[in-house]
Write a structure and sequence with these properties.
Shape: globular
Number of strands: 8
Number of domains: 1
CATH superfamily: Alanine racemase
Strand content: 15-25%
Structural class: alpha/beta
CATH class: Alpha Beta
CATH architecture: Alpha-Beta Barrel
Order of helices and strands: HEHEHEHEHEHEHEHEH
Number of helices: 9
Radius of gyration: 17 Å
Length: 230
């Protein structure tokens, strides 16, 4: 068994335990393997162990990997900051973009999504901790952006994503996630396509699962320490 396979299995066991501890249905939380800066060999090893969803932060690096691994049938999510001049690559190559935080970007993704492939799945990134250095819109601005995105023709609004402040303690972590959960539930009542609450990483995934996360994003616990970008 490879190191990646062993770590992946341990992480999936951790997610399963969190689901049991918080009365969540088995399999109700999807693992997004954050593979930024990782070589295609490591991604292929995770795919061989059954992992299908991968998250990337750097557009060109990700596109190269998507092309090299195109025969594996993987699902690719973009989770990094979005520059306007990179939206065409996102629209043409990714299955999901989780980091939309302004209508200009959503419009470009919709306009540039090729007509021969399925609509692009979109999550809106929310800055739930109101940290000035982080991307994402405020909770107050979320309803209006959700309305605008939902009206675009070549994208599908699937949910919300957040990277909360790094706080210590299970209850403090839960409190942050709870705010996003409430916003997510409000949106679900208005938009039938919404089903994805993307929150939780290596250090706080138990709290995220407790608060209803449907997707957690984990990299280091699968692939080991982050490699420097070339």
């Amino acid at each position: 068994m490879s190191d990646v396979t062993a770590r992946l299995r341990a992480l999936l066991d951790r997610i399963d335990t969190a689901c049991q501890d918080h009365q969540r249905q088995p399999g109700s939380v999807t693992l997004l393997a954050v593979s930024k800066t990782k070589p295609v060999e490591a991604i292929a090893a995770a795919a061989d162990a059954g992992q299908k969803c991968f998250g990337e932060n750097y557009v060109q690096e990700a596109v190269d990997k998507i092309q090299q691994l195109s025969d594996l049938g993987l699902e690719w999510h973009f989770i990094g900051p979005i520059q306007s001049n990179k939206t065409r690559l996102l629209a043409e190559h990714f299955d999901w973009v989780q980091s939309v935080d302004r209508i200009k970007i959503a419009n470009r993704l919709s306009e540039q999504r090729p007509s021969h492939i399925t609509p692009l799945n979109i999550c809106i990134q929310v800055n739930i901790s109101d940290e000035p250095q982080k991307a994402g819109i405020s909770l107050q601005a979320l309803p209006e952006l959700a309305k605008q995105v939902s009206e675009l023709p070549n994208v599908v609004l699937r949910g919300v994503m957040a990277i909360p402040a790094n706080v210590t303690g299970f209850e403090a972590q839960r409190a942050q996630f709870h705010r996003l959960k409430l916003a997510f539930e409000d949106l679900k009542s208005s938009y039938p396509t919404i089903d994805t609450l993307s929150m939780g990483m290596s250090g706080d995934l138990e709290a995220a699962v407790a608060e209803g996360a449907t997707m957690v994003r984990v990299g280091t616990a699968i692939f080991g320490a982050r490699a420097p970008r070339q």
